[in-house]
Design brief:
Blueprint: H1 2-12, E1 13-14, E2 17-18, H2 19-36, E3 47-53, E4 62-68, E5 74-81, E6 86-90, E7 97-106, E8 109-124, E9 133-143, E10 148-153, E11 157-158, E12 167-171
Parallel strand pairs: 3-12
Antiparallel strand pairs: 1-2, 3-6, 4-5, 4-7, 7-8, 8-9, 9-11, 10-12
Length: about 180
């Protein structure tokens, strides 16, 4: 029995190369490569995109946006942006309403608006090895009307896709105030 096995093993060697070992190495590499290629998204940030629309398509005045963090603190998200035609704001993971404070400043002074976005939060699962994500469905938007004329929900689903504008925001002309 031992002699047959040795003969069988010797027959698998071709030109000094062990075929059994080669197949084992190839199989191991394929399994490792198959397990390590996870399709996690490269950009897993979830932002609502605001696109300027209407008469004012570019805001030439200075724009500062901050968010209410819900713990009594505010955080500046955009600081003194000029010539703005769109901007992206992050969404909270657990709150059903996000509140943003907007300051528009020009040579004549500052004007303030508040934006309140109502939403539902849905956990999004890609794979066990990927970072968790929360997608959102916009259910409503309220805002003050100092410089903002209207905000229209353009796409109620907020996901990884930053190409679609979530909101179309119409500003009043600075000369009309």
């Amino acid at each position: 029995m031992t002699t047959k096995w040795i003969m069988k093993y010797r027959m698998k060697k071709i030109g000094g190369w062990d075929l059994t070992l080669s197949v084992y190495i190839l199989r191991t590499r394929l399994v490792v490569a198959g397990c390590s290629s996870i399709d996690c998204p490269l950009n897993n940030r979830v932002y609502a995109k605001y696109k300027l629309a209407g008469d004012v398509k570019t805001l030439t005045d200075s724009l500062t946006l901050s968010a209410n963090l819900g713990d009594g603190n505010d955080s500046v998200i955009i600081n003194k942006s000029v010539n703005t035609d769109s901007f992206q704001l992050p969404m909270s993971y657990q709150r059903s309403e996000d509140v943003f404070f907007m300051e528009i400043k020009n040579t004549t002074g500052s004007q303030f608006d508040t934006i309140k976005v109502s939403k539902t939060n849905t956990p999004h699962f890609e794979a066990v090895d990927c970072n968790p994500a929360i997608f959102h469905v916009i259910t409503g938007v309220k805002y003050t009307k100092n410089r903002i004329d209207t905000i229209v929900i353009n796409n109620s689903n907020v996901t990884y896709d930053a190409t679609k504008s979530t909101f179309l925001i119409h500003f009043k002309n600075s000369s009309s105030n």
